[in-house]
Amino acid sequence: MDDRQILHVDMDAFYASVEQRDDPALRGKPVIVGGRSRRGVVAAASYEVRRFGVRSAMSMVEALARCPDAIVVSPRMRHYADVSAGVFAVFHRFTPLVEGLSFDEAFLDVTGSRRLFGDGVAIARQIKAAIRDELDLTASAGVAPSKFVAKVASDLDKPDGLVVVAPEGVEEFLAPLPVERMWGVGKKAALQLHGHGFHTLGDLARTDPGHLEALLGSWGRSIHALARGDDSRPVIPDRDAKSIGAEETFEGDLHTVEELERPLLHQAGRVAARLSQNGLRAGCITVKLKYRDHTSKTRQLKLPEPVADTDSIYDAARSLLPRFPSIARGIRLTGVSASDLHEGPAAPTLFPDERRAKRERIEALTGELRERFGAAGVKRGRLVAPPDDDDH
Length: 392
What we know:
This protein is an alpha+beta fold. The chain has 3 domains: 1-167, Alpha-Beta Plaits (2-Layer Sandwich), CATH 3.30.70.270; 175-227, 5' to 3' exonuclease, C-terminal subdomain (DNA polymerase, domain 1, Orthogonal Bundle), CATH 1.10.150; 243-375, Dna Ligase, domain 1. It contains 15 helices and 12 strands. The strands form 3 sheets. It has a 5-stranded mixed β-sheet with strand order 5-6-1-7-8. A 4-stranded antiparallel β-sheet has the order 9-12-10-11, covered by helices on one side.
């Protein structure tokens, strides 16, 4: 497997960079993409505003407190999707093995492309140049023999970086990096690891995997292997999506079914929007919960008929919550995904569901409104937080 060459390409401050590219007046300015309401969340932060400590997923209140002069721009998700299609078109010139992680990042296996385009480093440089010349954007890339190492590498020299890790140098590269570089390690997990004397990936790699498993559950053996650079996972092409999903990790754990309903509704809306945009319907809905100890559980519901609207997906997702054990111990992530995908409109039935047909028409209309006014301009009433008394 050491002969593999995997690229992780990550666009630099993608949403904010697109806004700065499209509006010259924003170039060089501190730009935040997100909901204009102070209750909003930062979707993307330009490098100019990051100097003040503003980061994606931060509350807009905190972001504007850190940088009062920041320019807030409403998201244009359909436009970002169009720009993303141009980025992925560049990727596919060099290999069919492209695994997208989001609009702005992907893994590429270029092992079989080297005879045509040169080694992984040469291919990464060509991809970065094409994105710059054709789209007027920048990307950072990591080149390594595995997905994990390539992803870590791509994040070390942003923006417009290129970091290369040779097979023989993997352990030396990983060892001094802080445990926060490990996949899935957020602030709470990092504090837990620090409390047990683990500060670097080298510390994790040198310990007994059984000890990590005792501390962290099955996740412990996984991070031990990754810290050593052991990662044989293949790049899985995603041209024909088998599922469409959305996830969210919370700053603080959630402990009740009622607390979980709001993020599930938000995620159901994101899934429905993507189904609608692609002319798809889903016959199966899956909910994923990740507990505070990083263990994950999923529950699945097969639907009597394929659906494509927010309410049907949300109702299915919510109905699955009672099937999860021990929610009270703390949930750090929820996810909703749709699978068993079908193309085209619903098949005619003897007794059509008029309510669902109406909801799907509303879904299509909502998509058109998002296209015209941005994602922040259209929001369900249940997702709008009630005003505080001091807001009056």
